[in-house]
């Protein structure tokens, strides 16, 4: 497996470093054939090369079987780098260029963290849901976009929410297929009551259910209602499928359930090519967290659990993926806590301390 590591900005290098350690453990102990390449991404590139994304990095991105991405964005980035360059070198360009439309964001309650959640244990117990967020269209990419000056001299910011039938169809199909391997239920989330693109989304999702997946439980839900259902009764969900912007907002909101965004992994996949291979981008859903960068206190579990998704979806090693997920559960059960998931009075480990705890749990499980 050719893996390109793009650790990026802020806490990216710290958390990704622990995820790479875990990958190397699988290479050494479970015969994972691993070829790792690392490249700078983001501000480091800008400082070294005067561009966020050198052409050579873009070639590496396209040649990789899978990409392990850390985080991007820093406050000075917005101030220093011109908008065209930001767009060219951005995470969004990578998502679009790789056409990784299916962004999976699992939210699974860790029993050991029940006390760390802002929600009551009776609400969080057994939460095991997954978002399929459409990642390459919608509000993030629609045109026209920009800031224009009106005849009266004032400015207007413009973004456009667009979805073609094909873009909706492939995301929704992906969600139905995923549901068949889980608890067999899909919730399709839109604002069909307000948006034309939402009404089209609803029409197509309903038709795909009826014509192709009648065996899968299905419901439509308005996005605002979905926000409150996620807070009140998150165990009612299995697979949620939604557009790029709602998926961004709702997955963060769902992250609150398990206590810290630092815990959440993601995988983004393209359609399979003729050989059945999908392009794949793995990243924790948290950002670069500049306020805690460089302190060695960030939670690496979002990145480590993204490696588990990589083992499942790119390496086709479901047993290794499960082994790693068990090891994370085991490390937490033994009390390993980074600051973001520690309850008052609990001892705290560093970023690399959490990596140690996961590796120890892997050693234990393999013995
Ligand atoms: C995410 C992030 C990104 C997004 C940002 C960093 C562009 O918030 O992956 O959820 O909005 O998609
Ligand atoms: Mn987000």
UniProtKB/TrEMBL annotation:
Its EC number is 1.1.1.85. SUPFAM superfamilies: Isocitrate/Isopropylmalate dehydrogenase-like. Pathway: Amino-acid biosynthesis; L-leucine biosynthesis; L-leucine from 3-methyl-2-oxobutanoate: step 3/4. The record marks 140, 191 as: Important for catalysis. Residues 2-358 form the Isopropylmalate dehydrogenase-like domain. Binds 1 Mg(2+) or Mn(2+) ion per subunit. It comes from the Bacteria. GO terms for molecular function: 3-isopropylmalate dehydrogenase activity. Homodimer. This is 3-isopropylmalate dehydrogenase. It comes from Roseococcus pinisoli.
């Amino acid at each position: 497996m050719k893996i390109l590591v793009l650790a990026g900005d802020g806490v990216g290098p710290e958390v990704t470093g622990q995820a790479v350690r875990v990958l190397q453990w699988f290479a050494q102990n479970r015969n994972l054939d691993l070829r790792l390449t690392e490249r700078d991404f983001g501000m480091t590139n800008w400082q070294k090369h005067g561009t966020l994304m050198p052409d050579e990095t873009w070639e590496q991105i396209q040649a990789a079987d899978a990409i392990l991405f850390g985080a991007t964005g820093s406050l000075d980035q917005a101030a220093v780098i011109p908008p065209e360059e930001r767009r060219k070198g951005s995470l969004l360009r990578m998502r679009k260029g790789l056409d990784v439309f299916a962004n999976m964001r699992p939210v699974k309650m860790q029993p050991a963290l029940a006390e760390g959640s802002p929600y009551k244990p009776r609400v969080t117990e057994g939460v095991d849901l997954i978002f399929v967020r459409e990642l390459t269209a919608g509000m993030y990419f629609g045109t026209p976009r920009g800031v224009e000056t009106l005849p009266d001299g004032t400015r207007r910011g413009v973004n456009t929410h667009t979805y073609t039938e094909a873009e909706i169809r492939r995301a929704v199909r992906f969600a139905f297929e995923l549901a068949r391997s889980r608890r067999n239920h899909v919730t399709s989330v839109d604002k069909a009551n307000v948006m034309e693109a939402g009404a089209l989304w609803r029409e197509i999702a309903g038709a795909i259910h009826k014509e192709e997946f009648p065996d899968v439980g299905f419901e439509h839900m308005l996005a605002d209602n979905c926000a409150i259902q996620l807070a009140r009764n998150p165990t009612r969900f299995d697979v949620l499928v939604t557009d790029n912007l709602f998926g961004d907002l709702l997955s963060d909101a769902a992250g609150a359930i398990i206590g810290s965004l630092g815990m959440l992994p993601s995988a983004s996949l393209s359609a399979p090519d003729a050989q059945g291979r999908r392009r794949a981008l793995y990243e924790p859903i948290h950002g670069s967290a500049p306020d805690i960068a460089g302190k060695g206190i960030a939670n690496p579990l979002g990145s480590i659990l993204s490696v588990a998704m990589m083992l499942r979806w790119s390496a086709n090693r479901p047993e290794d993926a499960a082994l790693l997920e068990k090891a994370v559960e085991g490390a937490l059960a033994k009390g390993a806590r980074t600051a973001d998931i520690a309850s008052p009075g609990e001892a705290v480990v560093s970023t690399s301390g959490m990596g140690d705890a996961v590796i120890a749990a892997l050693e234990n499980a393999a013995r």
